[in-house]
Amino acid sequence: MDKVMSNKWVIFLYLLPATLMIGVLVYIPIAVSGYFGLFDWDGVGAMNFIGLQNYTELLTDSTFWFSARNSFYLALFSTLALVVYLGVALVLSSKVKGRELFRKIYLIPMLLSSVAIAQLWIRVYDPNNGFLNTFLRNIGFDNPPAWLAERDTVLFAIFVAIVWQFAGFYIIIYTAALKGISEELVEAAEIDGASPLQIATRIKVPLISGVIKTTVVLAIVGSLKYFDLIWVMTGGGPNGASEVLASYMYKEAFNRNNFGYGSAIGFALLILALLTTVVIQKITKSKESQ
Amino acid sequence: MTKKHGFLLFVMAILMATLVACGGNGDEDANGDDTADTNGDDEEVEERVLELSHLWPEGSSPQHHEIVSGIIEEFEADNPGITIETDIYGNEQYRENLSVISAANELPDVGMTWGGGFIEPYAEGEMFTPLDDLVTDDFVPGTVDAFAVDGQTYALPLELNIAPVYYNTEMFEDHGLEAPETLDDLKHIVETLVDNDITPATLGNREPWTGSMWYMYLADRIGGPDVLTEAINREGSFEHDALIEAAAELQELTDMDAFINGFNGLGNDEAKGYFINEQAAMYMMGTWDLPEWTTSEDNPQEFKDKIDYFKFPTVDGGDGDIDSFVGGPGVGLYVSEDSDMQEEAKAFVSHFVQRWGELSVEEAGVIPATAVDTDGMDLPDMYIDVLNDLNEATNLTLYADVQMGQDTEDVHLDMIQALMAGEVTPEEFAENHEEALAQEED
C-alpha cells in the first residue's frame, strides 16, 4: 500500500474523481456566475456585455445593503446561539440523568427537511390559530403580534426557527468534541477543588477551542448564504422586511429574469463570505499566538 | 494493484456515464402513447414527428392528461404520417426546462407558455412564431391579449379564470346579510361581521397577487375598466385620481378589519384554510378553486352547499360596472419559430384549442378561453353560473402583476403589502408605481 501511495500518478488518479466533480460542480459555476455578472441578460435572449456596471450598481442598491444587513444580523444571532448550544452540550456531556434522551430530542430537527420545518413554524406562528398565539392569549395577552406579518417581528421570528433547526447539528459537534477530553484532566481538576462551572469554562471550553472556531466559521458563513426557511416562510416579505442576500439574489435572477444582476449578487455574496472567513481566521489566529 | 486500478476505472466509467447522461436531452421522457395508426396506406405517406411539450403529467393532472392524449390521437388519425411525441414535465420543472431548451435552440414544435411578462423574452427573442392568423372570434375577449407582445399574438390561450368573491351563505344569513351590490353594502357587511367577532374576509397576502386582485377590482369599479391598464401600458398615469382613491378604499377596508388578522404573513393556502374551516365569511380567488366548492371530495358536502359567490360590488358614482372581471388565462400554446413543420404545428394548435374548448369544462372542470355552450352539459350549478357570467362579461382585466414588466411587478406586489399594512399612504403607493413604470419605459 505504501508503495502504491508513493507513486505520484496513483495519488493523482485517486484524487481525480473528487477534484473533477468539485471543479465541474462548484468552481466552474462560481467562475461562470462571476462572468455572467458582467452582462445584462434576461436568461433567454442575447447577452449584452456591460462590464462592471452590475457590480457598481450593487454598491448603491439599498435593497442589497438592507438584505446584507439582515444576513449579518442572522450571522450575529447564530453566533450568539452557539453559546447556548455549547451550554447544552456541556450539560449533556456531564453525567446527568436522561442525557441520551435529550441528545436524541435535540437531534430530531436535523432529520427534518427545511420545507417541513418551515411548514411547522408557519403553523406555530399562525396569527389566529397558531400554537404560539393561542398560548399567549390563554395567559392573558389579548393582542399578540402576527409574527410573520409584521416588520418588527418577522426577522426575529424566523431567526428563532433557524436556531431551532440547527441546534442538533452544533450540539452533536460539541458533545463529540467534549467526549475527546481525557477524564484524567477533569478528575485532576476535581481533586484540586474546581467547581463544575470552573471545570467547564477553564478546562473543557479551552480544550475544544479549535472546534469552537470551526463552528463559528460554519455558523457565520452558513448564515450569510441562508435561504431555505426564509424563502418558504415569508419569501422575503412582508414588503421586503425579511429579505436576505440569497433570497434577493433568487428574486432578481429567477422572478425578475435579471440573470446578470442576480449573478452579480451571488458573486458579491461569495466575496462577502470569503472575506468574513478570512477576518475570523485572522482574529482567532492572533489570539492563539499570544 | 491491478484490482485497485480496475476499481478506479469503474468509478471513472460511472462518472463519465453520469456526465454523458446529464448532457443528453431527455427525449426518452416521451410517454410512448401508442400511435393509433388507423390508416392502412401510410406506406406512401412521409413519416414525420411533431414534438409537443406540455405540463400535465398523468400522475398529478390525470383528467388534463387524458384530454390531451385524446386530442393527439384524433389529430394523428386525421393526419396520416404525422406522429406526435410528447415531453411532459410538472409545473416548476416545465418552467426551468423551457428556459434551458430555448437557450439551446431546442424548443419543441408546439409547447405551452404563460402570458404577460413571462412570454415577453420569448417573443422578443423570436423563439415563438406569431399566431395571429389562428385567432378566431371564439375566444373570450381579453384572453388572447395576454399573449400579445407588440401587437402580435404569440400563443393561443387554453384556460380562463376570473376572480369572484366566494362567501359562506350560512354566516351571512345568521347575521341578516345578503350578497353586496355596492361597496357601501360590503362595508356594512364588514362592520356587522366584525361586531360579531367574525373575520369578514380571509386573504393570503404573503403572496400579494391575492391582495392585488382586491385593489384591481376597486380601481375598476371606481375608474372604469381602462384606467389601470392605461397606467400600466403608459397611455395614462398611475397617479390618476381613481387609482389613488382605490388605494384609499382598500386601506379603509383594512382599517375596518375587513381582512383576517396577520394577512401579510399568511400564504394563500393557509388563508383558504380559514375559509374552509368557516373561520372567515368571504374569500376572493380565481375560478380555478371552483372544484373546492363543488366537486372536490376533500371538503364535506355540508360545507360546499353553503358556499356561493358574488361579483365584486360597484362603487356609487364610479365608472365601472358589475360585469367587469379581474382574471386571466393560464397557459397557452405556442409554435416554435424554428419548427420545420410550422404549418402542421399550427393546424395542431387550432385543433387542440377547439377540442379543448369542447371538452375541458365537463371532463376536467377547467374553464376554457373559448366561449362555452352550456346547453346539455352536466355541470354543477356554480359552473353554469360562472360560464353564464362570462358570456355576459363586459370586460376582462388581466391580473395587474401579469400585465406589468417584471421589475414593476415586484414593486407592485411589495406596495400592495405596504399599503395594506399602512406603511405607505395611497399617494405614496401611486407615486411608487408611477416611478417604477416610468423607469421601465426607458
Note poorly predicted spans of chain B.
Answer: 19-42
What name does the CATH topology of chain A carry? MetI-like fold
Strand order of the largest sheet of chain B: 2-1-3-13-6
**Count of individual domains of chain B:** 2
How many β-strand runs of chain A?
2
Bin the strand percentage of chain B.
5-15%
Oligomer: heterodimer
Rg from Cα of chain B: 25 Å
Helical/strand content category of chain A: mainly alpha
Strand order of the largest sheet of chain A: 1-2
Bin the helical content of chain A: over 70%
Q: Could you give a short account of the major beta sheet of chain B? A: 5 strands, mixed
Number of helices of chain A: 14
Write the layout of secondary structure elements.
The complex is a heterodimer of chains A (290) and B (442).
Chain A: H1 2-6, H2 8-36, E1 39-40, E2 48-49, H3 53-59, H4 62-93, H5 99-111, H6 114-125, H7 131-138, H8 151-179, H9 183-191, H10 196-207, H11 209-224, H12 228-233, H13 245-255, H14 259-289
Antiparallel strand pairs in A: 1-2
Helix pairs in contact in A: 2-14, 4-8, 4-11, 4-13, 5-8, 6-8, 9-10, 11-14, 13-14
Chain B: H1 2-23, E1 48-54, H2 62-78, E2 82-88, H3 91-103, E3 110-114, H4 120-124, E4 148-149, E5 152-153, E6 156-157, E7 161-162, E8 165-168, H5 169-174, H6 183-195, E9 199-202, H7 209-223, H8 227-232, H9 241-255, H10 268-276, E10 280-284, H11 290-293, H12 301-306, E11 307-310, E12 324-328, E13 331-335, H13 342-364, H14 381-391, E14 395-398, H15 400-403, H16 406-420, H17 426-441
Parallel strand pairs in B: 1-2, 1-3, 9-10, 12-14
Antiparallel strand pairs in B: 3-13, 4-5, 6-13, 7-12, 8-10, 8-11
Key terms for this structure?
heterodimer; A: 290 residues; mainly alpha; MetI-like fold; two-stranded antiparallel sheet; 14 helices; globular; B: 442 residues; alpha/beta; D-Maltodextrin-Binding Protein, domain 2; 2 domains; 5-stranded mixed sheet; 17 helices; 14 strands
